[in-house]
Amino acid sequence: MTATIDRARRAARRRWIDHRTIWRWHFYAGVVLIPFMIVLAITGSIYLFKPQVEAAIDRPYDHLALKGPAAPLEAQVKAALAAEAGARLKAIELRADPTDAARIVVRDAEGEATRVYVRPDDLSILKVVREDDRFMQQVKTIHGELLMGDRGSVVVELAASWAILMVVSGLYLWWPRGRAGLAGTLVPRLGRGGRLMWRDLHAVTGFWISGLALFLLVTGLPWTNVWGAAFKEARKLTGTAAVHQDWTISRKEEHAEHRAEAMAEDHMAMGRMDHAGMDHAAMTGPTLGYDRIAGIVRAMDLPPPVMVRPPSGGSPMWRVSSETQDRPLRVSLELDPATGAVARRETFAAKHPIDKVVGVAIAAHEGQLFGPLNQALGVIAAAGLVTLSAAGAMAWWRRRPEGVLGAPERLGEGQVARGWIALVVALGLFLPTLGVSLIAIGLVETLVLRRLPGVRVWLGLAPA
């Protein structure tokens, strides 16, 4: 028996990757990822319903019973600016119903945006909230950064990269290899109870949601700090970069863009004041009033939310944009301030093919590409990730040996195979955080952990 085991281990060393190695990767990924997968699944499933959630939160400010005629939109803007000392107008969310409270977005000198809700008839302020403090923005921040800024973004990217490895390795481990029947392969044996039930629930759930999970994980990469920045740089080097990318890789980058925009507008406005001896309003005030422009834009019936930005120190045009999460439907317009005629129109169809692909992928990732079915698939994927995480933890808990972690034992030593090096390089090229972490784990495991008897036994490592 001992000789047979030794021959099996020697044969395993000759393979570039053996079953036990993949099992070990899968185990490590699962141990680390469970809390992150649960947080990302919950926050992601909430974000799928952003339009519905925001509509529910804002319901008290819609369809108001007005006590008199609505004041001109310009007066509503002035009321919002008066509510925030030193504020400048950033944008107006144009509402289809004139009895809705006006949503006026103002900014400070640093570009920090605040949303002010103004009652249309008496111009009273109903609500003031920083854009970053809105509920769905908080959910997005947890989902993308774990409330930890750039460091949290890297942690999320690392978790997503390892999750990709976990799904791929899980499919390899799930493969039937001669097993007859559907039980335990396509259908979990729930009636068997115990460890077998949890094992089946983990493996079968993982198989059924693997495609959705991989899609969500891969389509989330453009937002990440490391992969997203590398993708952006690659587009610059290949001459395919967009003039203005339709997504940001971090909240820090988003805030930097807002500050730069605010500083540019303020600088240009001050320059015009010095040059002409006139104030900002006199130089940039539109010929057409707010209400005329609002009427023109409403007639276009753009997908909501529709944001209207007035002429400013940075641009003499009215700027209108549909910011619907169904990105292929987005439209950006510039309107002549004197006539309201469309001076420039940019649609999704005019974007670079790369931006189109990413835009469609993001819309699907956010559950907005093809309506309720898209949201349902996202919820199924999120629920599946939570289920397989919990079931995997229970399966491990049921089988764990006494006094050790219970990781699959590492098979013998031997020269590092070229296939392993090729795999690490490939992973490092496509998923840099995963590639670096795999190398780091290998070095720490080989040079440190295997030399510490207590740790070595607890982890199930071979002696140094």
SSE blueprint and pairings:
Layout: H1 2-14, H2 19-47, H3 50-57, H4 73-83, E1 88-94, E2 102-107, E3 113-118, E4 125-130, H5 135-145, H6 149-174, H7 194-219, H8 226-237, H9 251-276, H10 280-284, H11 290-300, E5 306-309, E6 318-322, E7 331-335, E8 342-347, H12 353-365, H13 371-399, H14 418-430, H15 432-447, H16 453-459
Antiparallel strand pairs: 1-2, 1-5, 2-3, 3-4, 5-6, 6-7, 7-8
Helix pairs in contact: 2-5, 2-6, 2-13, 5-6, 6-7, 7-13, 14-15
Describe this structure in words.
By secondary structure, the protein is an alpha+beta fold. The protein has helices at 2-14, 19-47, 50-57, 73-83, 135-145, 149-174, 194-219, 226-237, 251-276, 280-284, 290-300, 353-365, 371-399, 418-430, 432-447, 453-459; strands spanning 88-94, 102-107, 113-118, 125-130, 306-309, 318-322, 331-335, 342-347. An eight-stranded antiparallel sheet has the order 4-3-2-1-5-6-7-8. A hairpin with a 5-residue loop joins β2 and β3 (113-118). α2 (19-47) packs antiparallel against α5 (135-145), α2 packs across α13 and α14 crosses α15 (432-447). The two termini are 25 Å apart.
Number of strands: 8
Q: Summarize the amount of helix as a percent range.
A: 55-70%
pLDDT < 50 runs, ≥5 residues? 11-16, 271-286, 412-417
Shape: elongated
Which characteristics define this entry?
alpha+beta, 16 helices, 8-stranded antiparallel beta sheet, 464 residues
Could you write a compact summary of the structure shown?
The chain has about 475 residues and is of the alpha+beta class. It is built from 16 helices and eight strands.
